[in-house]
From TrEMBL:
This is PHLA1 protein. Its main location: cytoplasm. PANTHER family: PLECKSTRIN HOMOLOGY-LIKE DOMAIN FAMILY A MEMBER 1, PLECKSTRIN HOMOLOGY-LIKE DOMAIN, PQ-RICH PROTEIN. It comes from the Eukaryota. It is found in: Cytoplasm. InterPro entries: PH-like_dom_sf (IPR011993), PH_domain (IPR001849), PHLA1/2/3 (IPR042832). Residues 8-119 form the PH domain. Keywords: Cytoplasm. GO terms for cellular component: cytoplasm; nucleus. Transmembrane segments: none annotated. One of its GO terms (molecular function) is phosphatidylinositol phosphate binding. It comes from Regulus satrapa (Golden-crowned kinglet). Residues 39-61 are annotated as: Disordered.
Length: 141
């Protein structure tokens, strides 16, 4: 997402619940863009730094960076405030649910929801324009 020129809207730390049996909370460095959410292990260099430092091998393989693209995201759900944390779930199009938590004042759930809605609106506008262009093209003699 950052490679395609998307600017970062918000950066910081989020905790993601692991899929394993113990379901531990793991810190992830997150970059929210206009296209989606990047989840980066905290020891991993940022994607832009990685490109500049090509001779040095990365601390972890690039496969560890997860991209949650808005085109594959359905909703941001289940907001619960407990103690100092806000808990929320990102529901992906294929039904997978990813649990997150952050300090209440960080507002990650609201920022992700807002960017996702804006992304979906942009896609809907592009679809309408495309349909209109096709109709105009077919109607032209």
């Amino acid at each position: 997402m950052l490679e395609s020129g998307c600017k970062a809207v918000k950066e910081g730390m989020l905790e993601k619940r692991s899929d394993g049996l113990l379901q531990l909370w793991k810190k992830k460095r997150c970059i929210l863009t206009e296209e989606g959410l990047l989840l980066i292990p905290p020891k991993h260099p940022p994607p832009q730094e990685q490109q500049q430092q090509q001779p040095a091998p990365p601390a972890e393989p690039a496969a560890k960076i997860k991209e949650l693209h808005f085109s594959n995201m359905k909703t941001v759900d289940c907001v619960e405030r407990k103690g100092k944390y806000v808990y929320f779930t990102v529901v992906m199009a294929e039904g997978k649910e990813i649990d997150f938590r952050c300090a209440q004042e960080q507002g990650w759930n609201a920022a992700i929801t807002l960017q996702m809605v804006q992304y979906k609106n942009r896609q809907a506008i592009l679809a309408v324009r495309s349909t209109r262009q096709k109709q105009q093209h077919l109607a032209a003699p």
